[in-house]
Each structure stands twice: as C-alpha cells, then as structure tokens.
C-alpha cells in the first residue's frame, strides 16, 4: 500500500454552534461526521449531546472522506480535553474505517503500523495523543452508503447535516457569520430533514443557498 504524507494547507474553524433543541442532553455523548468534495476540501462536524457543536473545514493537496472523518473525531476529542476523565467519552461515528483506526490506537498500535494510507500525518498524530489521554467508547452508526442519501436518526444525523452544511459553506465561500447561516443552524431543516434531497431543497429555498439559486 502506498503511504502518503500530504499536509493540510489551510483550515477554517473551529466555529461554534448551539443547537437549542438538544439542551439538557448528555454532554459525554458526542457524534462526529466528515464530508469532502473536489478531492481537496474536507469538512467536519462535532455535536455534543447537550447541543454544543463545532464545525469547520480544511484544504489539502489531496484528501478523502476517510480523512475528514478522522479529522472530525480528532476535533471531538480535542473539544473534550477539559472534561473529567473519570467516565469514558461515548463517541458516535458512521465511519467503520475511522472507528477501526481509533480502536487500533487504543490498543497501542503505532501510527506507522496502521493499515491505512496516512495522508494527513499531523491529524493522526493529534488523534493518537487524544486517544492516549482519556477513555473512549466507540459506537458505530449507520453506514456512509446510507447517510449519503439519508441522515441517520439521533445525534449522528445532526452531525451529518452539520458536516454537509460546513462543506457547502466551504465550497461556495459563504461567510459563517452571515445571518442566513446562523438561522439555518437552528432551523427545522437542520433538526428534522433526514432525506438529503429535501435538506438541499430547504438550503436553496430558505437557507444560505437561496442566494446561489438566484445567481
């Protein structure tokens, strides 16, 4: 297997979001998701059970959806670094490959021995450091093949829609602090639109994408 070490050229975020319908939920439950486009843009999202969320994206010479999923998990563990370590962080991901990487790092496998193309080495190094720092329980959600058309139920679905939103912001160069973006983050579509096509229609009709539709 060819091993690549391609650096991340630039990053945007982490940006904060608060999803009020989750208020009072379990802060030790965290869902992550990644998305990518054009082989060079990776977007990620982290949603905590109490409604606190982070999202962002990066640009690299080359990236993959797997790399974006790893970046999302790395960000989730970084977000939890100040949390008490007496109980494990319960991490939900829909990426079997990313979950496998975390499990191998937990088992003490060295980065150079991981069975994956190591495209963004600094991300893997940061992930390994976080994995050593606290107990983690990995919960695997729906397969990406399902979530490409449908968001999964629960917290993982919200992370999926937030990662998709982050990718749209990156690809179309939409300003994060735009009032339309802030309204979108707490919209009914973000809360409930499980079908990707319906989410996209809401984005174009009433969300930040409506300006793109008029262009």
Give the CATH class. Alpha Beta
Cα-atom radius of gyration: 17 Å
Residue share in β-strands: 15-25%
Number of strands: 6
Largest sheet: 6 strands, mixed
Please, what is the average pLDDT?
89
Q: Helicity level, as a percent range?
A: 40-55%
| CATH architectural label | 2-Layer Sandwich
How many structural domains can be distinguished in the coordinates? Answer: 1
| Amino- and carboxy-terminal Cα gap | 44 Å
Order of helices and strands: EEEEHEHHEHHHHHH
Q: Based on CA inertia axes, which overall geometry fits?
A: globular
**What count of helical segments does DSSP give?**
9
Low-confidence stretches: none
Task: Classify the secondary structure makeup into a structural class.
Answer: alpha/beta
Q: Any chance you could write out the topology, listing elements then pairs?
A:
Blueprint: E1 8-18, E2 29-37, E3 41-48, E4 52-60, H1 65-79, E5 89-93, H2 96-106, H3 121-133, E6 136-140, H4 144-147, H5 155-171, H6 179-185, H7 188-192, H8 196-205, H9 210-214
Parallel strand pairs: 2-5, 5-6
Antiparallel strand pairs: 1-4, 2-3, 3-4
Helix pairs in contact: 1-3
Architecture overview:
The chain has 215 residues and is of the alpha/beta class. It has one domain (8-176): Ribonuclease H-like superfamily/Ribonuclease H (Nucleotidyltransferase, domain 5, 2-Layer Sandwich). Helices cover 40% and strands 22% of the residues. The protein has helices at residues 65-79, 96-106, 121-133, 144-147, 155-171, 179-185, 188-192, 196-205, 210-214; strands spanning 8-18, 29-37, 41-48, 52-60, 89-93, 136-140. β2 and β3 form a beta hairpin. α1 (65-79) packs parallel to α3 (121-133). The mean pLDDT is 89.
